[in-house]
Write a structure and sequence with these properties.
The protein has 94 residues and is mainly beta. It has one helix at residues 17-24, and strands at residues 5-8, 11-14, 29-32, 35-38, 91-93. It has one domain (1-94).
């Protein structure tokens, strides 16, 4: 393992990433258009991403944690699609 990597949540990641995971836990909702929606935690998505067995493949959070913003796996709380690419509009952390 390279010196610039650590193990956090059972995943090898850069030393700065655990802080981003911790900060993501404070973002509990998003504004989409004029409405505020609660964020979907890893393991609560409609699709089974394996949260019972592994950390998120994109951002490294574990079941019950909020994804790091812009994670490929985070579900849109409005439409159920992929938050970073759905047609609901830009999601703003609130």
């Amino acid at each position: 393992m390279s010196d610039d990597k650590i193990i956090f949540n059972g995943v090898s990641m850069t030393r700065d990433w655990p802080q981003r995971i911790k900060e993501a836990q404070e973002i509990v909702s998003v504004r989409i258009e004029e409405n505020i929606y609660p964020r979907v935690k890893f393991g609560e998505e409609k699709r089974d991403w394996g949260a019972e067995r592994v950390a998120c493949r994109d951002c490294g959070v574990v079941k019950g944690q909020f994804h790091v913003p812009n994670c490929d796996v985070e579900q849109c709380p409005k439409c159920g699609g992929q938050l970073i690419s759905c047609d609901c509009g830009d999601a703003e952390a609130v």
